[in-house]
Amino acid sequence: MLVAPGSPDIVWRVSVPLHFAVKTRLVGLLEELGEGAALPPERTLAKEFGVSRWTMRQAIRELIADGRLRARQGQGTFVATPKLIQPLALVSYTEALRAQGQQPGRELVAFEEIEADELLSEQLGITVGDPVYRLERVLLADGQPIGLETTYMSVARFPTLRDVLKPEGSLYRCLTDELGVRFGEGEELVETVIATPREADLLKATQSLPMLLLHRTSRDTDGRPIEAVRSLYRGDRVGFRATLRP
Question: Does the keyword DNA-binding apply (predicted)?
């Protein structure tokens, strides 16, 4: 029950779902247990909290989706490490991850040439049908998949990309160090989506897990398009931060 500020005679009655109240109490327990600790069995927790196992299960599922807990098949549920916070900026994924004490990595899924459709031709400043690199890689943090990144670039502008890029290496570092590209500006759109079965499999996740989808286009200091990128991130592992100025 809440009292409206400045109005002592007005009372707001707020009904809080039981599983949400249990979830709030569990957060306190996780802080006591510490990172990496095993969560007590669901049955034990339900008894201690005085709720049904269904209610406890619902609260635990939401904490898993929030990234506060991590379920390991056949082992149990554990207090998760804090989310990786990535800046919304034109910086290398490698540098951003290392700054947080994590070891970055990448697994190559596909590196092929396709024909530009209308959207890619607009994003990359080329003609429909022109050849485009399609580079798809799973992004890793300490060996665990956290994202799936697909980058599109004009073959005509970067004809030697296949020769100089190491599939497990930083694309931005390759572009700047090997090809002399200087990033100028970019645009990014962030939305929530549901992963496809293929994407969930590559990210070792379930389709019920929240995902963050980023669409980015970047240009060099002369305003020429460099890339169009589609990045899908596990919502339980990654968050994003932006600096806002008036």
Answer: yes
Sign of CA dihedral 177, 178, 179, 180: positive
Q: What's the one-letter identity of residue 25?
A: R
Q: Is 113 exposed, middle or buried (0-12, 13-18, 19+ CB in 10 A)?
A: exposed
Q: How many residues appear in the chain?
A: 246
Q: Compute the distance between CA of residue 180 and CA of residue 199 in angstroms, rounded to an integer.
A: 33
Categorize the per-residue pLDDT at 4 as very low, low, confident or very high, splitting at 50, 70 and 90.
Answer: very low
Residues contacting 201, CB < 8 A, separation 6+:
none
Rounded to two decimals, the pTM is 0.74
For 97-137, how does the pLDDT look when each residue is reduced to its tens digit (9 = 90+)?
Answer: 787 777 889 999 999 999 999 999 999 999 999 999 999 99
Within 13 Å, how many C-alpha atoms sit on residue 235's CB side? 19
Q: Cα(72)–Cα(79) distance, rounded to whole angstroms?
A: 11
Q: List pLDDT tens digits, range 194-222.
A: 999 999 999 998 888 889 999 999 999 99
Q: Which of 154, 157, 219 is nearest to 186 (CA)?
A: 219
Q: How far is CA 167 from CA 30, 49, 68, in A?
A: 38, 50, 32
21: left (phi over 0), alpha (psi -120 to 50) or beta: alpha
How large is the average pLDDT for residues 127-153? 95
